[in-house]
């Protein structure tokens, strides 16, 4: 190698020590280019200044005390800094690594055009990944919705002119439809017409009943089988696990490509099976899988767990925007949903990129046009009647109902899921899914409001009655001809069809409440947005019709006299359905701001903000009176995930010494000393304990803290040293200091582990209130904290210790925290 390069290196480091120049020259002439490049990236003179001064200034004679340049080149050990499955990441260490990487890029970007291009690529990689994620999640959301609609209609019949058309698309071009029976056309054939050749009669009804149940069971069986065989993580909503992952917990494979593929396929099958579930929560999981896969294309995210989780928050916003846009046409509401409900860490930069991701996802959905109505939402509505002050009372009553429903559902569903975990019934997920699907299909078919797709049901309940509506809910007696029922506006006398529809809706309400409790948590993809909204919409529509008829028959009451004239459209039952849907969804998830924005984007009218706010806040207050946990937090606690909820307050007066380990009568804390342990002693400590890390102290006598070393890093470093270094034996001295201790001349080569030592572990004193410790863990994302007294190490507090302590203080089982 040319010595001019070596000389340039030394001058750039401002290094003039003659021994350093000699060593570097020898090293450059005898080593390959790769090792010399590693040397050039090492802050050489920082190492040389102290070590050469030590060796020349009487640091001790002999081979053990002299320092050669090769010992200074501590190459990164492969595997150090990574994490095992079901462990929590070290946010502080990961952030430090990212800052170091960023400084290195900034310092080199002025050296050449190539380095400047690399810095631009690094800066724009976040925007690029978010764009790709928005495109993928929006496209998948549209495809899932189109496929689910087609399979759902396949249970009732098939389009002869084009097999890939659903019922509505099949009749678009038909000229033989009538206003009363606009969904019937010659191109669409029911299974009874295809198999028996007849469309009416008992035989036709039984055949359609049988085929409806057959297809529902087939879709459910296929969905649960695919999940069980190929991707067990594809089941459920995914939001509880994603909240836990974003808080720093490692669940390998949960956001992988197999999970993405199986969840996409089985989500279509689960929705089409008719089970009481939705696709919005699973769509968030699908989009997070997309973001995780795309992030591996960029070293900025693939090599840093904390950066990946910060980015995952942006992915989640794109996912929320895509999933919520499919259901509600509310990309901004999706961003706020991520901020309010799911995100653990949400810096301002993430908000900007989330907004952009929402834009991309909404654009893709609009381009796909999955509903064929040139809108982002299936049940887009526009109301033309203003609300009146008196209506706040029924709106608040709907909020009370939503809060009560949310509290009841959370307790009942958690009790059933806990029973599933603790009994043999949970060992047969396929049988459970088939059983629930069979009951759902058999009970749902006779009632037209439970037979149809839940999204279609919500659309019908939200719709305002008018002359173009043929729904049974809009059969009012005409003002001109009171003897017949016509589709009319509101504030007309309800015909028998409306009362019949109300009875059917009441039965549908009871059915939906019961089946949603047993369905959420099955081993298939299952969301909760649509079922909760359907329950609220049914209750709201019933209340709306009741208030409407009350105003019609008693318009002279003082409540209606001033603002509701005879024959005028005063009450909008569809608005009550919308308010009820928001209240029930808020009662289950305890969302407030994002939920109001979602429904506001749904209606496009500012004047309905106040009723929505009143109902949603009432729902949250009533639900919080029975328990502050939403459904996702309840499932996190049920599964034992180590998640510190930022919304939960810690009001107890305990101190750090009350929570730290070791407790009284416990075995002493397992610690490492900085320079007087052998490799055999270190391996013995690792084999006899299961701790994730060990404090490093000066000596057993002083107990002065030096740092903290992770178990995984120690194991990897020992294996790497034995593989690459000669002379490492069981009686080799292990040291965590900068310089090797003075050893006899015949001693084996010592093992230096300083590179894996965290020299700035977070510490608190033993008298620190636990309220402050809990806040520190939440805001800094710590995995452990050391407890000291006057500088002496006393114990350690981990996130699991805090969760156990909080469970114990709440009179819950502290052993329910299953993971490390």
UniProtKB/TrEMBL annotation:
Keywords: Antiport, ATP-binding, CBS domain, Cell membrane, Chloride, Endosome, Glycoprotein, Ion transport, Lysosome, Membrane, Nucleotide-binding, Repeat, Transmembrane, Transmembrane helix, Transport. The keyword Transcription regulation does not apply. The chain crosses the membrane at residues 212-234, 254-275, 318-339, 351-368, 388-410, 430-449, 501-522, 534-555, 575-600. GO terms for molecular function: ATP binding; chloride:proton antiporter activity; voltage-gated chloride channel activity. One of its GO terms (cellular component) is synaptic vesicle. Residues 660-726, 757-815 form the CBS domain. Gene3D superfamilies: 3.90.1280.20, Clc chloride channel (1.10.3080.10). It comes from the Eukaryota. It is a multi-pass membrane protein. The keyword Ion transport applies. It is found in: Cell membrane; Early endosome membrane; Late endosome membrane; Lysosome membrane. Its main location: membrane. InterPro entries: CBS_dom, CBS_dom_sf, Cl-channel_core, ClC, ClC3. PANTHER family: CHLORIDE CHANNEL PROTEIN, H(+)_CL(-) EXCHANGE TRANSPORTER 3. Belongs to the chloride channel (TC 2.A.49) family. ClC-3/CLCN3 subfamily. Strongly outwardly rectifying, electrogenic H(+)/Cl(-)exchanger which mediates the exchange of chloride ions against protons. The CLC channel family contains both chloride channels and proton-coupled anion transporters that exchange chloride or another anion for protons. The presence of conserved gating glutamate residues is typical for family members that function as antiporters. This is Chloride channel protein.
């Amino acid at each position: 190698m040319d010595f001019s390069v070596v000389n340039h290196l030394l001058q750039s480091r401002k290094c003039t020590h003659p021994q350093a120049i000699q060593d570097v020259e020898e090293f450059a002439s005898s080593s390959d280019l790769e090792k010399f490049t590693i040397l050039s990236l090492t802050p050489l003179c920082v190492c040389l200044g102290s070590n050469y001064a030590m060796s020349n200034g009487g640091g001790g004679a002999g081979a053990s005390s002299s320092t050669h340049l090769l010992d200074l080149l501590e190459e990164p050990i492969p595997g150090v800094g990574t994490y095992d499955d079901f462990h929590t990441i070290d946010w502080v260490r990961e952030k430090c690594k990212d800052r170091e990487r960023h400084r290195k890029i900034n310092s080199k970007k002025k050296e050449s055009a190539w380095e400047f291009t690399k810095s631009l690529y690094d800066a724009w990689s976040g925007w690029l990944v978010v764009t790709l994620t928005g495109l993928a999640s929006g496209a998948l959301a549209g495809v899932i919705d189109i496929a689910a609609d087609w399979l759902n209609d396949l249970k009732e019949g098939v389009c002869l002119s084009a097999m890939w058309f659903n019922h509505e698309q099949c009749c678009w071009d038909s000229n033989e439809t009538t206003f009363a029976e606009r969904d019937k056309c010659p191109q669409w054939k029911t299974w009874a017409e295809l198999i028996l050749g007849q469309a009416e009669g008992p035989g036709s009804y039984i055949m359609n009943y049988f085929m409806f149940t057959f297809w529902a069971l087939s879709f459910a069986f296929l969905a649960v089988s695919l999940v069980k065989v190929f991707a067990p993580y594809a089941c459920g909503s995914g939001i509880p696990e994603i909240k836990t992952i974003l808080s720093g917990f490692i669940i390998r494979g949960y956001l992988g490509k197999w999970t993405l593929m199986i969840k996409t396929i089985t989500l279509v099958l689960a929705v089409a099976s008719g089970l009481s579930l939705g696709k919005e929560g699973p769509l968030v999981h699908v989009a997070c899988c997309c973001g995780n896969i795309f992030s591996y294309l960029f070293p900025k995210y693939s090599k840093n767990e904390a950066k990946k989780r910060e980015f995952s928050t942006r992915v989640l916003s794109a996912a929320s925007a895509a999933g919520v846009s499919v259901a509600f046409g509310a990309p901004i509401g999706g961003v706020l949903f991520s901020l309010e409900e799911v995100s653990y860490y949400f810096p301002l930069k993430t908000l900007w990129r989330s907004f952009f991701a929402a834009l991309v996802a909404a654009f893709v959905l609009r381009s796909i046009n999955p509903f064929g109505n040139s809108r982002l939402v299936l049940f887009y509505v526009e109301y033309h009647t203003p609300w009146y002050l008196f209506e706040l009372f029924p709106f608040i009553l709907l909020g009370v109902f939503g809060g009560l429903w949310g509290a009841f559902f959370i307790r009942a569903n958690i009790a059933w899921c806990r029973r599933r975990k603790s009994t043999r019934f949970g060992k047969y997920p396929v049988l459970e899914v088939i059983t629930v699907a069979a009951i759902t299909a058999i009970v749902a078919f006779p009632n037209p409001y439970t037979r149809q797709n839940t999204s279609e049901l919500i659309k019908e309940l939200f719709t305002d009655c008018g002359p173009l509506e043929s729904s049974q809910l809009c059969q009012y007696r005409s003002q001109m001809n009171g003897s017949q029922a016509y589709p009319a506006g509101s504030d007309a006398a309800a015909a028998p069809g409306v009362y019949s529809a109300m009875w059917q809706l009441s039965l549908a309400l009871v059915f939906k409440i019961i089946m949603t409790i047993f369905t959420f948590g099955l081993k298939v993809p299952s969301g909760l947005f649509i079922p909760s909204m359907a329950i609220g919409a049914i209750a709201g529509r019933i209340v709306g019709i009741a208030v409407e008829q009350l105003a019609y028959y008693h318009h002279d009451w003082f409540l209606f006299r001033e603002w509701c004239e005879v024959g005028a459209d005063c009450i909008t039952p569809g608005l009550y359905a919308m308010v009820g849907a928001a209240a029930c969804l808020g009662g289950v998830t305890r969302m407030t701001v994002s939920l109001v924005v979602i429904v506001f984007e749904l209606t496009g009218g500012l004047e309905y903000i106040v009723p929505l706010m009143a109902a949603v806040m009432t729902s949250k207050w009533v639900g919080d009176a029975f328990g502050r946990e939403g459904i996702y937090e309840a499932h996190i606690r049920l599964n034992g995930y180590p998640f510190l909820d930022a919304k939960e307050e810690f009001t107890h007066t305990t101190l750090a010494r009350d929570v730290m380990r070791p407790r009284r009568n416990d075995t002493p804390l397992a610690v490492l000393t900085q320079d007087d342990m052998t490799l055999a002693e270190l391996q013995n400590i690792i084999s006899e304990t299961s701790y994730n890390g060990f404090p490093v102290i000066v000596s057993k006598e002083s107990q002065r803290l030096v740092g903290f070393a992770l178990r995984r890093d120690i194991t990897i470093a020992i294996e790497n040293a034995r593989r690459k270094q000669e002379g490492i034996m069981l009686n080799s001295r292990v040291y965590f200091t900068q310089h090797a201790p003075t050893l006899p001349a015949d001693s084996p080569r010592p093992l230096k582990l300083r590179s894996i030592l965290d020299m700035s572990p977070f510490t608190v004193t033993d008298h620190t209130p636990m309220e402050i410790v809990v806040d520190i863990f939440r805001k800094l994302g710590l995995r452990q904290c050391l407890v000291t007294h006057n500088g002496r190490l006393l114990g350690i507090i981990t996130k699991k210790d805090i969760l156990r302590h909080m469970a114990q203080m709440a009179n819950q089982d502290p052993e329910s925290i299953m993971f490390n």
